[in-house]
Amino acid sequence: MTDTGSERFDFVVVSNRLPVDRVLAHDGTPSWKPSPGGLVTALEPVMRANDGAWVGWTGVADDDQQPFEADDLHLVPVRLSAEAVELYYEGFSNDTIWPLYHDVIAQPTYSRRFWDAYVAVNQQFAEAAAEVAAQNGTVWVQDYQLQLVPRMLRELRPDLVIGFFNHIPFPAYGLFSQLPWRLQIVEGLLGADLIGFQRRADAGNFLRAVRRLFKVQTPHGRVELPAAGEGRWPNSMSDRPRSVVAKHFPISIDAKAYVALVEDPAVRARAQQIRDDLGDPGTIMLGVDRLDYTKGIQHRFTAYAELLAEGKLDVDDTVLVQIASPSRERVETYRALRDEIELTVGRVNGEYGTIRHSAINYLHHGYPREEMVALFLAADVMLVTALRDGMNLVAKEYVATRGDDDGVLVLSEFAGAADELKQALLINPHDIDGLKRAMLTAVHMTRAERRTRMRALRHRVLVHDVERWSRDFLEALAAIRPRASAQAAAATED
Ligand code: GDG
Question: Cα–Cα distances in Å, from 490 out to 136, 150, 227, 493?
Answer without folding.
Answer: 13, 20, 13, 5
